[in-house]
Amino acid sequence: MVTDLANLFRIKKSHIKPAAAVVARAFQDNAIFVHCMPDADTRKQILHHLFQFRLRCGVLYGEVYAISPNLEGLAVWFPSKHVQMSLWQMLRAGGFGFYLKAGDKLAATLHAIEEYILSFHRRLLDFPYWHLSPLAVDPPFQGRGHATALLKAMFARTDRENLPCFLETQNARSMRFYKRFGFRVIEKGVIPGTEIPHWAMLRESR
Ligand SMILES: CC(C)(COP(=O)(O)OP(=O)(O)OC[C@H]1O[C@@H](n2cnc3c(N)ncnc32)[C@H](O)[C@@H]1OP(=O)(O)O)[C@@H](O)C(=O)NCCC(=O)NCCS
User: Considering only CA atoms, which of 52, 44, 49, 58 is closest in space to residue 16?
Assistant: First the structure.
């Protein structure tokens, strides 16, 4: 079992495209994305672009780890100082290109959801932390301990550095999964305009 970041594969710019395809496959049935993009083909395409943007942000302003160079699963971590990105940082990571691909309406909907999610950070967290977003394992490789390995490797470091970790999820099964690692729900909400639950979860260092 991998328990150290040195045993994971750190993603660089050249891996972003295939890594985004993995994350898009993992999130194809995610409730928020199904709500925003009901058509499965559109969702597949847009998610690939969305996660290229997200991974580029991760490579530039955070740390992105994969289980191996085969990219079976990925974890994208941001230090709290880069959770709220400036316009310049987003443009540099390809935000404008994503906006053009998504179109006005979808980009505005996703932006409103992102703002809602960020409001939890602003309200609940006035200390340094690491933010996990997203954690994804390619569906054919799920259930083999990859997500557990990705999480434990980062916790070895955050525990050493005495830093908490924060994440959000809209999936009850994932919420229970995260509890296994010491995350607790610090606030529950509902994604605006939907009935999708939203759990904000914090894991203190040990
Ligand atoms: C959640 C996820 C990262 C787990 O990855 P994994 O490598 O299969 O996880 P592990 O093998 O380390 O651990 C297995 C546990 O993951 C959880 N899990 C497995 N598949 C899951 C799924 N589709 N959705 C939510 N949780 C799942 C279960 O709790 C499972 O435990 P169990 O077998 O005792 O029920 C993976 O299922 C995934 O990428 N899901 C889609 C994206 C997502 O929901 N990401 C996390 C929420 S932000």
Answer: 52
